[in-house]
Amino acid sequence: MDTAQRLRLYYEACIPMGLLVLGMFHYGFPPFDDTTLTLVPGLLMCIIITYYLYNRLSSNTDDTHVLLGTQTSMYRRRADPGRMWGGMLVPLVMFALNIGDASDEKHSVGLGACGAWVLSVAMAWTFTVRLSGLSSGCSWALCVAGILALALAGPWERGNTGVHVCLVAMSAIAQHMGTQFVVRKLPRSFTLGEAAAIAQGICLALLDLAAQLFTRKQGLVDPQHMCVLVLEAAGVGTALIVCVLYMAPRHSQGVSVKDTVWMCVAAGAGAGFTTSIIAFVLGANPMRWIVLAVLGSQTGRIVLIYWFMLMACATAIYAWCAQTPTSSSKLMLHIKRKSYHILAVLLFAPAYIATPLVLHIGFTIALCVFVCAESVRVLCLNGWGTQMTHFMRRFTDARDVGLVVTAHFYLLVGCAVPVWLDNTRGCVEAALAGVLALGVADTCASLVGLRFGSIKWPATVKTVEGTGAFIASLVVAVECMRWAKGFGYDTAFGYGEMPGYGLVGSFVVCVAMGVLEALTDQNDNLVIPLIMYAAVKTLIHSDTISWISVVVVAAMLAMPLIPHSTLIQLHSVL
């Protein structure tokens, strides 16, 4: 690997590592009353950060190790498989989730923010150790030691040591099996880092749902708890639908009555199972709550009408474009792809300003519909698979070469996850991180870079002009949202107060996201929104930590100037 590629990978890693280090030392490990019980996950993350930092500085940055039970050909071929993101992304986001929310008793249902942070560290620790290249016995010993340390000295209630050990061990094993399942069943669709991050997020959601099933709090129907429960239960119901569709008989072409029956049975089973889970946990009718939340206020009804009119116009435009001769140029392909990003801004930003609760529920329903539609496409049910594939391939690029077309999933998930994590707390800059970064900044960067870009970043196809457009447009978009958030904000369901933010922190976040978008080899629709959410929560609350971050990042940028011979000597010592 040449020097330019090595430095690009190193500078890419500086942003998430710097955020996590600054957050842990500024807010605590993370910011809880009893910090002695949260030192262990923080120290384990410091070890993980040190390992990846050294890995990126050394010449051995080709990430030749793959997950046990998989092969290199099963991953999407990119210059960087993204092991660092598999070990850093989810813990960073879970840490940011704790900032400002640790003392809120309303969020103690299920795992809670603190429990999710500890389990994410356990999954990141085992993922990193198992792929570190150590011997089998040594890696297993380190995994067990980390699991026991997190279970015995983590921020748990005292007296349930056995339960904690089982919970941490289950999370570590589940993320390994989940990553392996994603890679094997959906070949060439993900890099290693993307597959690990997706598996870790799904494992956390399932464990949180299981914790709510065992700690039923009937009668507790506040919007924040209900939104999370609806999301997790709908995810399980959607998985059931996919399983039923997978068992359906295959028909190569034409509409089949059997396929239609199977699809109806699958939809009924998934909806019934989802409703049953929510009713069992809360002892309330979830459908009645959802209808009341969406249609019970005038704002919710206006948002639904707005969405319907906008989607009708967009469908008419796309139908007209599909019938007209299209250019095969790269610019036209980018315009087609980025038109969905612009549509996402028009759909989601006004809805969040008006009523975050409706947008939260809408994202949940949209994800379920996307998963079911993609299952029908892959399985070629009811003769729709070929038509859907033909339509989707009009908007794909070199990254969509696997079994699953991930472009639209990443766009939806990138916009939705910050909203789900913010969970109606009212932090507009954090909640709309995906919408602003993907819908506004990434669109401007792509079009400007492709049309006017001439100066390229080292070891990448991204241009400096595109990065400048990304930063400038993101700064403008954040300031517009900051101005607009005071208009028409719906507080009927107890949304939190919207705090003020530092201008220096806002600018640092925008610059960091622009640099990361230019350097990363991972799918930016997934990485950028989550890192921006964490950066907003970490930096934008304080100008002091933002200035400190500038100094820390400058020091990290100077580290590659260390002579390579010194790194070799350090490697021999270690």
The DSSP helix count reads 22
Strand/helix succession:
HHHHHHHHHHHHHHHHHHHHHH
Low-pLDDT windows of residues: 30-37, 102-107, 488-500
On the 0-100 scale, what is the average pLDDT? Answer: 77
Beta content comes to under 5%
Give the structural class. Answer: mainly alpha
Please count the beta strands (DSSP E, at least 2 residues each): 0
Oligomer: single chain
Radius of gyration: 23 Å
Tell the overall outline: globular
- State the major sheet: none
Share in helix: over 70%
- In angstroms, what separates the terminal alpha carbons? 22 Å
Main traits of this protein?
single chain; 71% helix; mainly alpha; 574 residues; globular
What does this structure look like?
46% of the residues are buried. The radius of gyration is 23 Å and the shape is globular. By secondary structure, the chain is mostly helical. The chain has helices at residues 3-27, 39-57, 83-98, 112-130, 136-153, 161-185, 192-214, 223-246, 257-282, 286-295, 298-323, 330-354, 356-379, 385-392, 407-422, 428-431, 433-452, 464-484, 503-519, 524-539, 543-558, 564-573.
